[in-house]
Design goal:
seven-stranded antiparallel beta sheet, signal, single chain, five-stranded antiparallel beta sheet, Immunoglobulin-like, 1 helix, 151 residues, NEAT_dom_sf, mainly beta
């Protein structure tokens, strides 16, 4: 009977351990703002941030998802905006950016929002240099070098 209990207990422990390893990494929300290092201030693009970033994965390979409103307030006026692309300097995050935006985020437009997702971030506490393309009213287009500043 004792041997049976030990075997059952050992099997239970192994099953729990296997289940724990099989579960995917859980998502964690992280608040952020878009920082403009060129003028050392929060970018006006931060007004388009919709909620916290969703960060999944584990050390060495995090995936980040950010959501932006397809509108922005400029000089007190709300105007339609779009975000054609987001490029990410994932390997330069630890050094504050090396100017090489080696990852292009995937982009989904839906319900008045643009969602960007990128992977390969080694540390989810480091600020992330990005290159964000924007278009306002379809007549003013620019690409900005910004930083996802976790706060």
């Amino acid at each position: 009977m004792k041997k049976s209990k030990k075997t059952l207990f050992s099997s239970l422990v192994l099953s729990v351990a296997a289940l724990a390893l099989a579960l995917p990494a859980s998502a964690a929300d992280q608040n952020y703002q878009l920082w403009n290092p060129a003028n050392n201030a929060v970018s006006h693009a931060s007004s388009s941030v919709e909620g916290p970033a969703v960060v999944t994965g584990s050390g060495g390979n995090y995936t980040v998802q950010i959501k932006l409103k397809n509108s922005g307030t400029y000089m007190g006026i709300t105007l339609p905006a779009s975000y054609p692309s987001l490029n990410v300097d994932v390997d330069g995050a630890s050094a504050g950016g090396d100017g090489d935006y080696e990852v292009s985020a995937t982009r989904v437009d839906s319900g008045g929002y643009t969602t960007f997702t990128f992977s390969g971030l080694s540390d989810n506490t480091l600020n992330v240099p990005i290159e964000l393309s924007t278009s306002v009213l379809g007549i003013h287009s620019s690409t900005y070098e910004l930083v996802i500043d976790w706060n």
